[in-house]
Please model this.
Amino acid sequence: MRRNLLLAVALLVSMLGMAQIPQFSAEEFDDWEYNNPGVALSASNILGGKIALYVTSTGVPLTLTSPPFACHRGETIDMAVKWLTPQWQNPGFQLNRVALTAALLDESGHTVDSVTCIPSTASRTNNLTLSLAVSRNIGHARLRFVAWKSIVSNCGMIEKIQIACANKADVNGDGEVSIGDINAIIGVILGLDDDAELKKKADVNDDGEVTVPDVNYVIDVILG
Model:
């Protein structure tokens, strides 16, 4: 029965696949969306600091939205953003007004979680780190970046976004959640692997022990 279960899960994994995690830079911006009709996404505009995020005088927030990617419960999305604020030396510049928000959108475009980061010091180039914990399976998600408090004279520009996803269901640490993680947990349950670090990672539901519910947790993540 166990062998049949593992074969079934392996088949589902191969059928589902996973969308590549999007990145944003002058070299990688395909399928990203910038909702400023006057500025096209191009390498020159990105490097020229023209991908500005702020709320226009008519109340429209300019946003940058990623293409869809696979997103699963238990996953942490880490974002390293190169955020430019050329007006940092201008009178009246306020750090809180160039706070950057990253929102996680589900397949219907609804915000399911968000995080906001304010630069720690006033400077032209800011390296911001934002993280989101995915609390439930939402299939293919998107990330939307916006600066809700910024105005055109006190705004920021995105030059680069590096995104990495890690999932605690990735027990064996190979970068994906698959049949290998189920096998790793079963190995701990059966006493075939006594590695202390693996035992810690195998307790994916954080109940203090490695049991069948941990296997079920990984299967739930795989099935989405």
